[in-house]
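[Meeting: bench + compute handoff]

Bench side (C.D.) handed over the final construct sequence. Compute side (W.E.) agreed to return the predicted structure before the next meeting so the bench team could plan truncations. Sequence as handed over:
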Amino acid sequence: MITALVVSTVLLWIVVVVLAGMVLALTRQIGVLYERVAPAGALMIGRGVVVGEEAPVVRATLVTGHTEMIGAPASDRRSTLVFFLSPTCPVCKTLLPALRSMARDEASTLRILLAGDGETAEHEDFRRRERLGEFPYVVSTQLGMTWQVAKLPYAVLVDAAGIVRGHGIVNSREHLESLVEARDRGLASIQEFARQQGVPATHAHEHPHGPQGEDRAHAHDHATVA
């Protein structure tokens, strides 16, 4: 009886040791996989504003009636994240909670401004319906044309000095945060960091956006940063 108990105890310890070894091996593989997977970032396209250069300054009127020089140096020394959206863009709506969270978490260093084009009344209704009163909101066709925004949702990060620090198509909070991360690292985009590390590029979905707020058919194509 005692012999059987000893044998079973030894077998149980062997099983425990084997399982512990498997857990350690899996943990190591997860770490290796994490290092090899590129960080997801906003997709930069080959046109529009240029990272490292001054943002084109556009005079625009907020839906509240106030006038703002978008792209100009900020007196409060905060960066400005200009988020281009449309009331008819489904992905744009899914990012609103992420924008609210970022606005709270980065309040001391970041200001978020919403921008769209088309009918002002449509945007005002969208602003009320989605309870976006906490964000400055501008409806300006000139802004989108000057900054050459062709896809939605799109974001441009301008620092306190009026210098473009990042821009690209975004469809997740990770993409939005990648703009701030790239700025903090002194890079043009998070994909540049990925290329420096020798890891694969990431993908992003695009939502076509035209002048005067004309929404074309929703696209599900993948665009890849080489």
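W.E. noted at the follow-up: The helical segments are 2-36, 90-94, 96-105, 120-129, 141-146, 173-185, 190-197. C.D. will use this when planning the next construct.
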